[in-house]
Structures are given as structure tokens and as C-alpha cells.
Specification:
The protein is of the alpha+beta class. It contains 15 helices and twelve strands. The protein has a single domain, classed as Cytochrome p450 (Orthogonal Bundle), CATH 1.10.630. Helices cover 43% and strands 13% of the residues. The structure holds protoporphyrin IX containing FE.
């Protein structure tokens, strides 16, 4: 069988470019074929076809999370994200009901209220506005507001900084956050998401990870959404879900997912030795011309056609699919509604995606909401 790593490799591997320009490196790899090797701190194999996504995301026993890239970020290195099968299934069964579509939709009035209260007037940067409003929404929905906003902001702030800042360990900050959560959780009112974590063993770690996983992902997606509708107000007349999907397609915050092969395995004729980092890339899948016409163009109307199975994976898929996908979608739709009053316009900024822990806009996104 064919090994995944072609002979002609840069002598020092790909680690340097991985640090500087991972998206370009991925795009060059993708041009070689739907599965390609990278030499990072350990051998990695990347794929982006629907078959590959199904192969990687459909087998939690073979492809493990521990020892993969998510463990590099202290904010994500706990709770569900690091729980392996079979315990993972049990933990999801405990948390899924609170995050299912119907109970999440019940939070719409509360989210709408936070957004209306926080609507900007005049010039603003969509990236920093979105981060602030998502923090307020998390506080209002997870704790009915009964959690110190400044603590939440301090805790999440490292996620807003460029790499390697989000990788640094911060034991004091985490201890402070854990103590604040231990105080808040027993008091969590019955009508908020915190209740789902209140009586869960390890609930403090679990809610801390959910707040982290839900923060910059949702904020960055929201910033791009506002940038696009501000640049083309015609988009307000489109189906809202299609506009949101198109943002999730072009700018999947989880641009790269990683696992570690627990055993030797193979895909088509390619050997994947045990211990290999196994990567799937929503970013590459969503820009694959074999799946999407004019893949780099913003065209929500494409979602009137059937979506390719395992070809649209902004929230991953399978058993490890994002816990917060209904929540994130509700936030995005609610904010979109609140800005649909014809006052929004784009001023400038740099929307090109930049890859950190999550995908983020390269620059500020300067918008204006008329008085
Ligand atoms: C637009 C916003 C979001 C995007 C694009 C996104 C994307 C993703 C992706 C791709 C994964 C799978 C990662 C992997 O295993 O490879 C994931 C997992 C997860 N997400 Fe999200 N997410 C978003 C918002 C949220 C929110 C709002 C929450 C919490 C309320 C959340 C909580 C989680 C959790 C806990 C996991 C781990 C699930 C598991 O391993 O079982 N996410 N997300």
C-alpha cells in the first residue's frame, strides 16, 4: 500500500510554514489530491472529501481525540472535547437534550433582548462588537445573567489573541474561573443552560469548555455575517438560513479538526500508521470545486440545491458533532434580524480568513449603523 508521505518532502518538514501560513499550506496540499501528508511535530494526514469526512468522523474508537491538536489549547483540553468513546456517548446523552433545537429556540426572546440592548450606533468594528455581544449572550443564556461578566471576559480574552497566546497555560486564571463557576452553578436558575451542567459530575470543567468552544467560533462567524450583509444589503431579502449557511461554508470557524489513529489503518490504498495525526478540514471541503460551484463566491442561493452528504460540515458530523450548533445558529439568525432595519453599511476592513485556533477575519471589519 501507498504511504501517505511522498518522498519529496522539505528536509525540515512543514512545521515552519504551518506556523506562518497554514491555510496556504493546506490549499497546496489539496491541489495534490484529496488526501495528503504533512510532516508536523508528528506525521499528519489531511483529507477533505466527503468519504474522508465520513471515515474520520464516523469511527470514535479508531480516531481518538486525546493526543490530537485540541489538547494544545487549555481552554478546550477538558470535558467533552477530551472524553473518548464509550464514555463520550454517555456524556453527550446527558448534555444533548438541553442543547437540542427546541429548548434552544426557547432562548430566542432572551437573546433578542440582549442584542437589541447592545445594538451599536455609528461606526463600529464587527469583530470586537461580535465578541462582546456573544459574551453577553453566553452570560444571559447559561446563567440568566447571574455570573460576573468581567470574569467571563477575563477568562475568554486569551482566545482573542494571536497564536501562540491561546496555547499558554494559565493555572491562576483557570482556578479563578473554576471558583466563580462553582459559586454560580448551584444557584443557576432553572430556565438557563447552566442547569444542564449543575448536577453533572465534572460539570464545572464541562461548562468551562462549552463557554470556550462557543465563544470565538460564534463571534467570528457573526462578524463575517455582518460584514457580508453590510456590504450587500440585498442579502437581507434572502432566506436567512441560507445566508447563515453560506457564511458557515466560506468561513468555518472550526477550519481543521484533528484526531489520532489508535491503530494501524488505511484509507483507499493509503496506509495510516497508528499514532498518525488524522486531520479533516471543513475549510477545504467547503471550497472544493468538485462539491460547490464557484466555491469562493458568496452565493446563499446555492443552498436551494441539496447539500452534499458529508460535504457541508461546519459543525463537524457524527457523534462528536458540535454540541452548540443550534445555539450558534439561533444567535446568528437573531442578530441578523436585529440589523435588518436598513441602517447598516460597510466602511472597510479585511475579511480574508486567518487561521488560529479558530478561523478569524484578518483585520477589523469596519461597519456603520446609521443614527
Ligand atoms: C458558529 C459557531 C460554532 C462552530 C463553527 C463550531 C464548530 C464545531 C466543530 C467543527 C466541532 C467539532 C470539533 C471536532 O471534534 O473536530 C465542535 C465541537 C464542539 N462544540 Fe462547537 N462550534 C460553534 C459553536 C459552539 C457553541 C455555541 C457551543 C456551546 C454552546 C459549542 C460547543 C461545542 C462542544 C462542547 C464541542 C465538542 C463536542 C464533542 O466532542 O462531543 N460550539 N464545534
Amino acid at each position: 500500500m501507498r504511504p501517505p508521505f511522498p518522498r519529496a518532502q522539505p528536509p525540515v518538514g512543514h512545521l515552519g510554514r504551518w506556523g506562518r501560513e497554514p491555510l496556504q499550506l493546506l490549499e497546496e496540499g489539496a491541489a495534490l489530491g484529496p488526501v495528503f501528508g504533512l510532516r508536523l511535530w508528528r506525521n499528519a494526514i489531511v483529507g477533505y472529501s466527503p468519504d474522508w469526512n465520513r471515515f474520520v468522523l464516523g469511527n470514535l474508537d479508531l480516531f481518538r481525540s486525546r493526543g490530537s491538536m485540541s489538547g494544545l489549547s487549555p481552554h478546550l483540553a477538558a470535558g467533552l472535547v477530551q472524553t473518548e468513546a464509550p464514555e463520550h456517548r454517555q456524556r453527550r446523552a446527558e448534555l444533548n437534550p438541553a442543547f437540542a433545537r427546541q429548548p434552544i429556540e426557547a432562548l430566542a426572546p432572551r437573546i433578542g433582548e440582549v442584542v437589541r440592548r447592545g445594538l451599536p450606533v455609528g461606526d463600529f468594528d464587527a469583530v470586537s462588537w461580535s465578541s462582546g455581544i456573544v459574551r453577553e449572550i453566553l452570560c444571559a443564556t447559561f446563567f440568566s445573567g447571574a455570573f460576573p461578566q468581567s470574569m467571563l471576559a477575563d477568562f475568554l480574552r486569551p482566545l482573542d489573541a494571536p497564536l501562540p497566546v491561546p496555547f499558554l497555560r494559565r493555572p491562576l486564571l483557570f482556578r479563578r474561573m473554576n471558583r466563580a463557576l462553582e459559586r454560580a452553578l448551584p444557584e443557576a436558575p432553572d430556565d438557563c443552560l447552566g442547569v444542564a451542567f449543575r448536577d453533572l459530575p465534572g460539570g464545572v470543567d464541562e461548562i468551562r469548555v462549552a463557554l470556550s468552544a462557543g465563544y470565538d467560533t460564534t463571534a467570528h462567524t457573526l462578524a463575517w455575517l455582518l460584514h457580508h450583509v453590510a456590504s450587500d444589503p440585498e442579502l437581507f431579502t434572502h432566506d436567512r438560513a441560507a445566508v447563515v449557511n453560506e457564511v458557515l461554508r466560506l468561513y468555518p470557524a472550526g477550519w481543521l479538526g484533528s484526531r489520532r489513529a489508535a491503530e494501524d489503518t488505511s484509507f483507499d490504498d493509503i496506509d495510516i500508521p497508528r499514532g498518525t495525526l488524522v486531520l479533516y478540514s471543513p475549510y477545504l471541503t467547503h471550497r472544493d470545486p468538485a462539491l460547490w460551484w464557484e466555491p469562493t463566491a458568496f452565493r446563499p442561493e446555492r443552498f436551494a440545491d441539496p447539500i452534499p452528504a458529508w460535504g457541508f460540515v461546519p459543525f463537524a458530523a457524527g457523534e462528536r458533532t458540535c454540541l452548540g450548533s443550534s445555539f450558534a445558529r439561533l444567535v446568528l439568525r437573531t442578530v441578523l434580524d436585529a440589523f435588518a432595519d436598513g441602517r447598516l453599511s460597510a466602511v472597510g476592513g479585511d475579511p480574508r480568513p486567518k487561521a488560529g485556533i479558530t478561523l478569524a477575519p484578518s483585520g477589523p471589519l469596519n461597519l456603520r449603523r446609521a443614527e
